[in-house]
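Q: What would this chain look like folded?
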Amino acid sequence: MKPSEALILGVDTAGSYHWTGHGTPPWQVDAFFRSVKALGANHINFHVHPITHAGKRNSALMQAMLLDIDRACRQRGLYYTLSIEAPNFAPKAEITPGVNEYEHSGDRHFWLLRPEWLQPLLPPKQPKPLLRAVIYDEAAHMQLSNNKYSHFPKADFDKPFFVDTRGMTMPKAWAALVNECGRIRSNHYRLPVPLHTEQVWPDLFHIFARAGWTAAPKLLKEHLNAVVVSVALGAAVQYQDRGARFWVSPDLWSPLGYPGHPPESLRSALLMGYQLGAEGIYVENIDYQGPPKDGPAAGPRTRHPEAPDRGSLVAWQDRETFALTAYGKVVHQFYTQYVPRHPRALDWRTYRPRVAIIRLPDGGWGQFSPGHKPVPHGEASSRDRLLGNPEMPLDKAASEWLHVWPIL
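A: My prediction, written as structure tokens:
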């Protein structure tokens, strides 16, 4: 992080209370911004969705939406990022009528924001941009599983993400992924806005970083933080000359429910990211209420014993009235008190690895069959695909590096 750049301390709007509960985007709600201020955050990761209801006006409305987000943040002195998770859970979106925005050559399935929508937010049209990145949520997951959830709530979608790796050797598939991620960054976006991905499993970080992306580890979630952070930090250090940076995103979700972690674990994740020198830290989610009791998005409603009855960092009594939960109080204390009182003498670039694991990042992270525990769902065969190739499940060679971690 350059001395002139602010440390990003943010929140994430996945499952936004106002949007999912009342149909109003959070950037149009003043009370939402009051809750962000109460937490002490200076950044919001907005989840954006395609506009498809207005025919030929859809594209103009998409640009207007992004300008609306930028204007709302500019009025309040906030940075923001744009998360385009929508195709992870939807098979199509027709912004141009009759054309699936998510469909690309080779029957691949992902979303490219149109450069003309982003240009008004960035130099030279906006000399002091507040947009910090375009984020592809869990791109590694989508690549390895062939977008299995894009027919949500079913898990039967099966189209490649960035690269169709069927029939490729692992070295060829690795090179194809690096090249395609680089092409998306340099040939499509061609803008002074970084590309990020949030990732859960301890692999593919180096593929994205080599292509100039920032691959941010999700902390907490369902994994071992130390392992994932080690791999992510190593990728950022190795490929910083290509544009990779180090951000982290503590995520309160777990396979057993939401919130699935105690407040003290959130504090620990924030401390880990900060003391490792991350230049961006944002928590998922700010005000998700948990899955609904019924309907297509219904899910386990188990909450951690220390979690409130509803909400995440913030619990809403109504559209205008909120309170900080125990999680929100942790974030408020960390952002407004701990960080100012504990300035860092280093950042992530300061670190030098003592151990290097030399391997091809092939997507092998310890996948296991549904018959194994402790996670109740196991891992379906649709995720047991090295670099997304259904003909290449996890094998002995791809598993060898996992034996290094108990020694470390």
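The chain has a mean pLDDT of 93.
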